[in-house]
């Protein structure tokens, strides 16, 4: 069962980070002559064109491309990067103006001007790639330029979250000479103006980065060379770390490997443990005979033991989650715990019998085999056990690789399916808006007119995000009442590194994307 005190662990995380990182993390470093810093991850890009990706490809984009706004070390709100300054010019949050830094260039020397910014934004909507980021620009009406350095965004509705959108790697600035206006760029090259140049790329294997001498922005690069290596599993990645074939691991560390590093740490490895905002949840298909019934969804919500999942499957490397908005963000609530409490078979049975359902409910749960870590299959087996042990459900498990899995849920083939969410930006809006509406990120329509027609528009008109709490909480309660989405757990960020690497704790931006430029080798203790 869930212990509410388990989730209040922020102070413990900070203490853990300080203890594991040690005094050497504050040392200066210089990699000249020592070879590149090699970073391992299980999140390989799906495409090298920012107009085509709404996924882990952003990891590479953040380091190779530049955005108007981004997150300097420690910032939780967007700050200028390619821009010199940006601001709303009206009181209704509908006109947003940015002035570029003077003398910006792409890595190959081409000029980066306001026309390049407009081209980069307009092509996202023109291409509207399946699985791409065009949906992030729903509030954008048009882009105008004035001279070489001024860009003005006109919105079709008030949207105080628009600066957060501009800070996502989806809005990476690309060179019009290299990136067509109406089609994605093919090939294994990427040309940007970020802290690094992409010198070479081998799909599914590695990306070789070198310092971009033309870069002008907030990032203070602590190294000149980084190689990113892509792994299929956490185990193979950690083996490479222990064998010193890589220096740092980031996305994709499995629970077993994290626990092994925690329990059996060696003198030459360190583990940085911090708060994360990625979440895992279930989606119910409203067109399915059984999943489309509110009583069935509420019975599942009443039976799921998140604490058991976090402890038995993930070995306490994740935290139970009782709302789609995770802890740490303004407006987080615990609606599913408040309304359902601890798992209860009698309460779940009552939901069903009150709806005239007296037989075991047959449900098929789907999950992807290669997206959210090796624990995913074990989590779904645990969900099957919990639901079937109640005597109320008969569960069938099915799975597919990610590429075909996505096609299946977009076609509405799955009664219930698992998804994960890494935030586009650190605001509660990004844990509600993408999941509701007729055309949402799940491919499963969820009208929720009170949320889309009143609560979200009203909250987006509020520039002081602390003033959105009531609307955010109201939206979350509607989601609890509908039980169309069932939050399961909230992740934490782990960076494992060789003991001679510093900067791991600064490398994670608020969207859990690694900023490679903070990493460096220690030269003194």
Automatic annotation (TrEMBL):
<feature type="domain" description="Solute-binding protein family 5">
    <location>
        <begin position="77"/>
        <end position="440"/>
    </location>
</feature>
<protein>
    <submittedName>
        <fullName>ABC transporter substrate-binding protein</fullName>
    </submittedName>
</protein>
<comment type="similarity">
    <text>Belongs to the bacterial solute-binding protein 5 family.</text>
</comment>
<feature type="signal peptide">
    <location>
        <begin position="1"/>
        <end position="21"/>
    </location>
</feature>
<dbReference type="InterPro" id="IPR000914">
    <property type="entry name" value="SBP_5_dom"/>
</dbReference>
<dbReference type="InterPro" id="IPR030678">
    <property type="entry name" value="Peptide/Ni-bd"/>
</dbReference>
<keyword id="KW-0732">Signal</keyword>
<dbReference type="InterPro" id="IPR039424">
    <property type="entry name" value="SBP_5"/>
</dbReference>
<keyword id="KW-0813">Transport</keyword>
<dbReference type="Pfam" id="PF00496">
    <property type="entry name" value="SBP_bac_5"/>
</dbReference>
